[in-house]
Amino acid sequence: MFVGHYSAALAAKAAEPRAPLWALVAGCQLLDIGWSGLIMAGVEKMKVDPSLLGSPLDLYFMPYTHSLPASLAWAVGATILARLILRLPWRAAVFIGLAVFSHWILDLLVHRPDLALGFGGPKVGFGLWNYPLPEMALELGLVAMAGGAWIAKRKDLGMAAWPAVAFLAFLTAIQMISSMGAMGEDVVQDGAMALAVYLVATAVAWAVDRGRARAA
Fold first, then answer.
1. In which domain, by residue range, is 151 found?
2. Which of 88, 141, 145, 163 is most buried, judging by how many CB atoms fall within 10 Å of its CB?
3. Neighbouring-strand partners of residue 47
């Protein structure tokens, strides 16, 4: 799951407009942002296996970001930080936390069994990655549905639709580009490239949302 994660951010923005879009966009990929840093530091582990169907990533050790308890901890931490640092209402802060946890739920659909239910023990994953076309259709479909809800909410608030449409086009473009590219053998470089994409998406979300009207 890549661009499909952003559907959670868009759905949350439609449900709670007071939550900053950039925070939701960063939040829905927060586990992967942490994963990128830990991969580059050598704390979590992955390798590229071209023999695998669909995604070539063998994510064999990532307990600190993608285990179930870790993802819950990241979500709770994000909620608290959104409340204390961004000074958001609790409802908006909770939606940011939900966006963070949505990452694990959506990964469950597409990952092979590499998501640990604890810091050890059994791992789960439904493996939709093994079916690239249905997997991509799911991701783009989720983004389209959540994006439609967000556009409708913007219209209800008297805001222009075109920034939302532009952001959806941006997400579609990076999904298409990522589907054509292949991961290299340099784990540090792969982690850095992934991190750069997440940060660029966050910056674009900030630009889209900076002129937003505050909901009452």
1. 3-209
2. 88
3. 58
- Under a CB-based contact definition with an 8 Å cutoff, are residues 190 and 39 in contact? yes
CA dist., res. 65 & res. 30, Å (int): 9
63-88 in b/e form (b: 16+ CB < 10 A) is bbbbbbebbeebbeebbeebbeeeeb
- Report if residue 94 sits inside a domain: yes
- 216, part of any domain: no
| Residue pLDDT, tens place only, 118-177 | 988 899 999 999 998 999 999 999 999 999 999 999 999 999 999 999 999 999 998 888
Strand partners, 123: 116
In order of 85, 122, 212, the CA distances from 153 in angstroms are: 26, 41, 12
pTM higher than 0.90: yes
Among 27, 44, 28, 54, smallest CA distance to 188 is for: 44
Residue 170 domain-assigned (yes or no): yes
Here the tokens at position 65 are 């970001």
> What tens digit of pLDDT does each residue of 33-72 get?
999 999 999 999 998 888 888 888 899 999 999 999 999 9
User: How many structural domains is the chain composed of?
Assistant: 1
Please indicate, yes or no, if residue 215 is contained in any of the structural domains. Answer: no
Tokens of 150: 């967000």
Interatomic CA distance for residues 32 and 38, integer angstroms: 9
Token digits of residue 110: 């597409």
Q: Give the span between the Cα atoms of 129 and 54, in whole angstroms.
A: 5
pLDDT for position 214: 42
In the chain, % helix, strand, coil (3-state, to 5) comes to 65, 5, 25
